[in-house]
Amino acid sequence: MTRTTRLLLVATPLFAAVTLGCGKGNTNLPATATGTVTYKGTKLTAGTVTFHTKDGPYSRFIDTDGTYNFTELPVGEAKVTVETESANKDKKVPSYGGSDSKINAPSSAGPKKGGGGGAGKGPGMTSSPAPGGAPASGSSGTYTKIPEKYATPDTSGLRTTLERGSNTYDIPLND
Description:
five-stranded mixed sheet, elongated, mainly beta, 29% strand, Immunoglobulin-like
């Protein structure tokens, strides 16, 4: 066997493995998601957006400019919820500390749970609004009441498919 033939026998399978391994079908790479949240055409400036994925929920505060930003999410289908009650300063907060849900620090903060916002992990997490019903830390915008249906994955009607890389998903709430 010639030297060229041996080189081709080794190089061809190696080239094929590298080429196929780098294809678009690799679902282990993260997705990012950004967007604007509006209610009846007006930007929401407080509250949280949560992507409910196969790996669990990932939440971020809505920034005061009406946007959200996830730095790392799993690819695939996601149900999406939006809530604003965490910013309701008139809401009665139970003395034991409030809700069971957990949310991330503002979008500008560092990554959480795998870099993209987690369910109860990482610094900057909170499990309820601040004492007295003040907006949760990092959610300093103005409270806007929205229908409760948007806060539950089964009733929000909000869904998206996250693909590897950058995703834009604006969330217009209309009723």
